[in-house]
Design a protein that fits this description.
The chain is an alpha/beta fold. It contains seven helices and eight strands, in the order E-E-E-H-E-H-E-H-H-E-H-E-H-E-H. The protein has a single domain, classed as Rossmann fold (3-Layer(aba) Sandwich). The two termini are 28 Å apart.
C-alpha cells in the first residue's frame, strides 16, 4: 500500500493505492481491473473496516484497488459537488497510470459502502451523463467506470438517513440528495446488497435505486439478506469490531462470492 496526494484546483485529497506487481513470468503481462473504493462513515470519517480489508480482498481476485479518501463534512464547505469533482480527477489520474500498472481501463469499478455508496450512486447518475457532468466538472472524464458495487447504500437522503440538518451539511442543494432521480441510459450496471433489518439506512434505499434501474433497463443485481445490522463490511471476523457479534453473519458474508460471480457474468473477471 502507498499513499498518493492528488489535487482538484485548490483542494488536495489523498488516496491509498494497492497495485498488483507484475508476475514477471510472461513476456506480456495481462492487464488487470481496478476497484476504486469509497468506504462509509456517515460523511464524518472514513471507515477503516471498508477500506484496506476490501482493497486486499479485491487484490486476492487479481484486481488493483484504490481507497478514495473523499472530503467529509466541515464548516468550510459542503461535501457536494467537491466529492464528485475529486473522484473525476482521480479517474483522469488513473488513465495516466494505466501503462505503468497494466490497468485495464475498460474494467474500472466504483465500490461504495453506506455513505460511500451515495457518492458512487451520484457519480453513476450525474457524471456519466454529459449534460450534468459539464455543470459539475469542466473537464472531460477520460476513464468512465464500467460497473458499480454498493453495499447497504445510502441513495436518497429523504428516506430515513440522515436527519435533515445533517443532509443540509452534506449538501444544501437537494439536487444531490436523491441519486435515483438522475439515472439515465448512460448509467452503469450495478451490484447492490443490503440486509432488510438494517436499522441505520432503510432498505428502501436499495429498492428505489434498483426499481429505477429496472424501469430504464440498466443491468443490475440485487441481494437482500434476512438479518444483520448496518456496516458489516465483509461480515466475517476479518472486519469484526471486538465483541460486536452483529458484524459477523455467515449468510451475509456470501455477498462477496455473489459479487465475484456477477463480475464474471459482466466479463470483468474471467469465468474459469
Amino acid at each position: 500500500m502507498a499513499k498518493q496526494q492528488l489535487e482538484f484546483k485548490n483542494s488536495k485529497f489523498e488516496i491509498e493505492t494497492y497495485w498488483l506487481d507484475p508476475l514477471g513470468d510472461y513476456e506480456n503481462e495481462p492487464k488487470k481491473p481496478l476497484a476504486i473504493i469509497c468506504p462509509g462513515g456517515a460523511y464524518k470519517f472514513i471507515a477503516g473496516r471498508e477500506a484496506q480489508p476490501i482493497a486486499l480482498k479485491f487484490a486476492s481476485e487479481g484486481i488493483h484497488a484504490i481507497v478514495f479518501d473523499y472530503p467529509l463534512i466541515s464548516d468550510e464547505r459542503p461535501v457536494y459537488p467537491l466529492v464528485l469533482q475529486e473522484l473525476a480527477t482521480l479517474l483522469n489520474w488513473v488513465k495516466d497510470q494505466a501503462d505503468m500498472h497494466n490497468i485495464d481501463l475498460d474494467k474500472v469499478l466504483l465500490v461504495g459502502f453506506s455513505a460511500g455508496s451515495h457518492i458512487v450512486a451520484n457519480f453513476n447518475t450525474l457524471m456519466t451523463n454529459e449534460k450534468t457532468r459539464a455543470k459539475i466538472f469542466d473537464e472531460e472524464i477520460m476513464v468512465q467506470p464500467t460497473a458499480n458495487i454498493i453495499g447497504y447504500p445510502v441513495i436518497d437522503l429523504t428516506l430515513g438517513w440522515p436527519e435533515e440538518d445533517w443532509a443540509m451539511k452534506i449538501s444544501p442543494d437537494i439536487f444531490y440528495w436523491q441519486a435515483q432521480e438522475h439515472l439515465t441510459q448512460d448509467s452503469k450496471p450495478t451490484f447492490i446488497w443490503q440486509t432488510v433489518t438494517d436499522q441505520t439506512v432503510p432498505v428502501m434505499n436499495s429498492f428505489v435505486y434498483s426499481q429505477k434501474m429496472e424501469l430504464l433497463k440498466i443491468p443490475y443485481e440485487l441481494h437482500l439478506f434476512a438479518s444483520g445490522g448496518h456496516g458489516s463490511s465483509l461480515a466475517t471476523y476479518v472486519t469484526q469490531e471486538p465483541g460486536n457479534e452483529d458484524n459477523v453473519n455467515f449468510a451475509n458474508a456470501n455477498w462477496w462470492e455473489l459479487c465475484i460471480n456477477w463480475l464474471k457474468v459482466r466479463n470483468i473477471l474471467p469465468k474459469n
